[in-house]
Automatic annotation (TrEMBL):
The chain crosses the membrane at residues 45-73, 94-117, 197-216, 228-245, 296-318, 325-342, 348-370, 430-449, 455-473. It comes from Paracoccus fistulariae. It is found in: Cell membrane. InterPro entries: MetI-like_sf. This is ABC transporter permease.
Length: 495
C-alpha cells in the first residue's frame, strides 16, 4: 500500500506544476532569515491588540462549536445528522468566512461563525465517538422507566466528560491557528498583520508576529485554566463587541438565500419552460468542464504529493524526538522543530513558501507536507516513546533501534494516521487556491471576488463530495489493512 501511494505520487510529478516561477529562493530566504533573526516589536501595541482578537475569536468559535456539537453528538448515528456534520466540516474556515462576509460583512459574527460551523461537525463526530467507546454497563443498569435524557446525563456523559474537556482544550489550540488564518481575508487577527508586513517586506515585524503567535500556542497550557473559562468567554464576547462593523443592510440574508446562491439561469426564470433547464444544464457543464474538473485535478495532485511528502517528513522526524536515538538535547531540538511545523497553520506556511518559490504547486506541497508530517511524527512519537523505554536491556541504540525495533511496531499506526490525514489534506489543498495556486480554491475565491456566489457554492459542493469520497476510501483501506482497530481519538481530526 505504501509503495502504491509512492508510485502514484511519482507518476503525478510530470503533470504537477512545481516550477520556481523565476524567483530567487535563496535570496528570498536570506532576506527573511535576516529579518527573523532581528524581530521588530515596534508596533507592539497593535500586535497585542490583534493577538487578543485572535484569542477572542478562537474562544467564542470553540464555545459555539462545542455547544452545538455536544447537542448533536447523541444523534450522530442518524444519517441526516451525520451527513450534515460531514458536509460542514469538509468546508474550510476560510471558505466559510468568505461566504459569511456576503451576509454579515467583515464582522465579529463572521469570524466566530467561520470557526464554529466546521467545528460543530468535528465536535459532533468526536464527542459521539467518545460516547460510543464509553462503558455501556451503567446505562444498562439504570431502570428501564428512566427517560433518555436522564440516562444520558447520569450514565453516559460522566464516563466521557473528561475526554470531552481534554479534546475541547486541544480544539482551542486548533482554533487559535484558524483564527490567525482568518486575518488573510481581512479580519483583524495576527494573520492580517503578517500579510501586511510581508507585502511591505518588513521581515523583522513578521518575526515579531510569529513569535507572539508561537507564544500564544506554547503557553496555552499555562493560561488556559478550566476555572477561568467563564471569565475568558465573557471577556472575549465583550472584546469582540467593541469591533466596529459597517452595516450590511437588513436584506443581506434574504438576498443571499433567495438570489446569491441560486444558480444564475434559475433567477427570475420560468421553471416551467424547457429553455430554463437547458440553460441550467449549459451553466453546469461550463462550470464543470472549465473550473471544477481542472481545479479538482490540481487539488488531487497537490493532495497526493503532499500526503507522500508528509509521510516522508514523519518517518524522518520521528527518530529526531526520541531520546534513545538522538539523546536529550537532540530530542529537545527535534520537538522544537515539530512544534513549529505543526503549530504553524498550513495556509500561513503556504503563504510564506509562496514568497520564496513563487506561484506554483510547490509552495502548497511543501507547506502541507511539512505541516501534516510534523503532526503525524508528533503523534507517532507519543506512541513510540513508551515502546522505546520498555525495550530489553540489550536492544540496539541509535538508528538501528529505530529501523529494527520501533518502526516495524509503529508502522501500522503510521499508515492509519496517514489515512486519517488524507481527508484533511484534501480540504487544505483546496484552500491554498486562495493564494493563487491552481487548485479548486482558486476558482472558488475568484467566483466570490466577482460576486458570483452561485458558482462558488457549486464548486464548494464539488469539494464536499470529493472529501466524502476520500473519507469512504480511507475507511475501507483502513479496514482492509486491519488498521481500523486503532484508537480513533488518538488519530482522527488532528488539525
Amino acid at each position: 500500500m505504501s509503495l502504491g501511494f509512492l508510485l502514484l505520487a511519482i507518476a503525478l510529478l510530470p503533470v504537477a506544476d512545481l516550477g520556481i516561477a523565476g524567483h530567487d529562493p535563496w535570496g528570498a530566504l536570506s532576506r527573511m532569515g535576516a529579518g527573523l533573526l532581528s524581530p521588530d516589536f515596534g508596533a507592539i501595541t497593535a500586535l497585542a491588540y490583534t493577538a487578543a482578537l485572535t484569542v477572542a475569536f478562537a474562544i467564542c468559535g470553540v464555545a459555539a462549536g462545542a455547544t452545538a456539537g455536544f447537542l448533536l453528538a447523541p444523534f450522530y448515528h442518524r444519517a441526516p445528522v451525520r451527513l450534515i456534520c460531514v458536509a460542514i466540516r469538509a468546508i474550510h474556515e476560510l471558505f466559510w468566512a468568505l461566504l459569511l462576509m456576503q451576509v454579515t460583512g467583515l464582522s465579529a459574527t463572521t469570524g466566530i461563525l467561520a470557526i464554529a460551523i466546521p467545528y460543530t461537525g468535528i465536535f459532533a463526530k468526536v464527542f459521539a465517538e467518545y460516547l460510543d467507546e464509553a462503558d455501556p454497563r451503567p446505562a444498562r443498569a439504570i431502570s428501564p422507566c428512566s427517560d433518555a435524557i436522564s440516562r444520558f446525563f447520569y450514565a453516559r456523559l460522566p464516563l466521557a466528560a473528561r475526554e470531552f474537556g481534554t479534546y475541547t482544550r486541544y480544539r482551542l489550540e486548533c482554533a487559535l491557528r484558524s483564527s490567525a488564518v482568518l486575518g488573510f481575508v481581512g479580519l483583524p487577527t495576527l494573520g492580517f498583520q503578517l500579510d501586511t508586513f510581508f507585502k511591505q517586506g518588513i521581515y523583522g515585524a513578521v518575526a515579531a508576529v510569529l513569535i507572539i503567535y508561537y507564544l500564544l500556542i506554547g503557553t496555552m497550557r499555562i493560561w488556559m485554566r478550566r476555572k477561568l473559562v467563564p471569565v475568558y468567554l465573557v471577556a472575549a464576547v465583550g472584546f469582540l463587541a467593541t469591533l466596529h462593523t459597517p452595516p450590511m443592510g437588513q436584506g443581506a440574508l434574504i438576498r443571499f438565500l433567495t438570489q446569491d446562491i441560486v444558480p444564475a439561469p434559475l433567477r427570475n426564470a420560468d421553471l416551467a419552460q424547457p429553455a430554463t433547464w437547458q440553460s441550467l444544464g449549459d451553466w453546469l457543464q461550463m462550470l464543470s468542464v472549465d473550473q471544477a474538473l481542472p481545479g479538482l485535478a490540481a487539488t488531487l495532485i497537490v493532495a497526493q504529493l503532499s500526503l507522500v511528502l508528509a509521510g516522508i517528513v514523519a518517518l524522518i522526524g520521528l527518530p529526531l524526538i526520541l531520546r534513545p536515538i538522538t539523546g536529550r538535547f537532540g530530542a529537545l531540538l527535534g520537538h522544537l522543530m515539530l512544534v513549529i511545523g505543526r503549530s504553524t497553520p498550513e495556509y500561513m506556511l503556504a503563504y510564506i513558501m509562496l514568497q520564496v518559490f513563487g506561484p506554483s504547486m510547490l509552495p502548497a506541497v511543501v507547506a502541507l507536507g511539512l505541516h501534516n508530517g510534523a503532526i503525524i511524527a508528533h503523534l507517532m512519537g507519543q506512541q513510540s516513546q513508551h515502546l522505546a523505554t520498555g525495550l530489553r536491556p540489550d536492544a540496539p541504540r541509535g538508528i538501528s533501534l529505530y529501523l529494527w525495533e520501533l518502526l516495524p511496531r509503529t508502522y501500522g499506526n503510521f499508515l492509519a494516521l496517514c489515512f486519517y490525514r488524507w481527508e484533511i489534506i484534501i480540504r487544505e489543498s483546496a484552500i491554498v487556491g486562495l493564494l493563487g495556486i491552481s487548485t479548486i480554491g482558486f476558482y472558488i475565491g475568484t467566483a466570490i471576488q466577482e460576486l458570483r456566489i452561485d458558482r462558488a457554492v457549486f464548486l464548494l459542493l464539488v469539494t464536499v463530495l470529493v472529501t466524502l469520497a476520500i473519507d469512504v476510501i480511507s475507511q475501507r483501506l483502513r479496514a482492509r489493512l486491519g488498521l481500523d482497530r486503532l484508537s480513533s481519538h488518538a488519530a482522527t481530526n488532528r488539525c
